[in-house]
Design brief:
The protein has 314 residues and is an alpha/beta fold. It has helices at 41-47, 52-55, 121-124, 128-139, 157-168, 182-188, 220-226, 242-253, 266-277, 294-302, and strands at 2-5, 16-19, 30-38, 66-74, 86-90, 104-107, 112-114, 148-152, 172-177, 192-195, 208-213, 227-235, 256-259, 285-290, 309-313. The strands form 3 sheets. Strands 3, 4, 5, 6, 7, 14 and 15 form a 7-stranded mixed sheet that branches. Strands 10-9-8-11-12-13 form a 6-stranded parallel sheet, sandwiched between helices. The protein has a two-stranded antiparallel ribbon with strand order 1-2. It contains 10 helices and 15 strands. Helix 4 crosses helix 5.
Length: 314
């Protein structure tokens, strides 16, 4: 099968397009013919070797987790899918699973969903990691109706979903983004926009019930300043080093800091799909590449200026 892979950790220029053996599904696996894939920050981190303690040193490795496509074969233990079903889902590459940037990928049923009516492959491939991360991060804030929510990095992959979900849940949403993205943030549902290129967050006077840091790099002093007492801050970049900071902020300032990483339970997919069907969650694909342009796609993503999601067609 045609696939993108790399034989050592490093920069996107190490990505190769070539031929790998087509995988064979086991009894509890689906073989998916991949149509589209989207890139997430974790994919770039894995490629660069920043998570190699988890991903190991066995090569070649195929990048990317998200996918959308068509079921080609089903394992003998699988009852809920049929050949030719249109599906989307993810593979946990962080657990040393082969990625999705290839003509075919193996996946297990609980990480695969049938495409909702009206959803295109390009849209579906953007959802699993980014939208489920946004959904879980906002869930940490509880009932959002009537509450104030700040989304940092509001027009990126996770951020643009978070703004839409918070708006759909009845929150008053403030988006943090650059000047060029202000109108886009409003289109996603932001009631107010802070232009971080012109505004010093350390002196911003409004405080918020919930802060979702989709960018993951808000300064702790700004978090304490902008978060209400008993407010909740969730971050996509929450690591072990944050545990002490979390405890300190809870005990001294009465503010909760926690992880907003992906959760993928059936009810999470149900919620995400319901919002899509209601027209309240609309994936924004800024740029689409072909599989032979994988290096260019990753380099484009690496620059960090993209809005919404970057998709690769197989």
């Amino acid at each position: 099968m045609k696939a993108v892979y790399y034989n050592a950790y490093g920069e996107p220029d190490l990505l190769q397009v070539g031929t790998l053996p087509e995988p064979v599904p086991e009894a509890d696996q689906l073989l998916i013919q991949v149509k589209t894939v989207s890139i997430n920050p974790v994919d770039l981190k894995i490629l660069k070797g920043k998570l190699k303690m988890l991903t190991g040193s066995r090569f070649p490795q195929v990048p990317c987790s998200d996918f959308a496509g068509i079921v080609k074969e089903i394992g003998t233990n699988i009852k809920d899918f049929a050949i030719c079903d249109k599906v989307y889902g993810f593979v946990p590459t962080i657990l040393r699973k082969p990625g999705s940037l290839a003509e075919f990928v193996l996946a297990v049923p609980h990480q695969v969903r049938k495409l909702p009516e009206g959803m295109a492959f390009e849209e579906a491939a953007t959802l699993p990691v980014a939208a489920l991360t946004a959904l879980n991060g906002l869930r940490k804030g509880g009932n959002l109706s009537g509450r104030s929510v700040l989304v940092n990095g509001a027009t990126g992959g996770v951020g643009h979903f978070a703004v839409q979900i918070a708006h759909a849940e009845g929150a008053k949403v403030t988006a943090v983004c650059s000047t060029s993205n202000i109108e886009l943030a409003r289109k996603f549902g932001a009631d107010e926009v802070i232009d971080y290129t012109k505004t010093d967050l350390s002196v911003w006077k409004t405080q918020y019930d919930v802060i979702l840091d989709a960018y993951g790099h808000m300064k702790q002093e700004n978090v304490r300043h902008m978060l209400k007492k008993d407010g909740i801050y969730t971050s996509t970049m929450y690591g072990p080093a944050a545990l002490f900071i979390t405890l300190y902020n809870r005990l001294v300032h009465g503010k909760i800091l926690t992880s907003g990483n992906m959760r993928a339970q059936p009810e999470d997919f149900d919620k995400m799909e319901a919002l899509f069907k209601q027209g309240k969650l609309n994936p924004f694909v800024e740029k689409t590449f072909q599989i032979d342009q994988a290096r260019e796609a990753f380099r484009y993503f690496e620059r960090g200026k993209h809005r919404g999601k970057v998709v690769i067609r197989i």
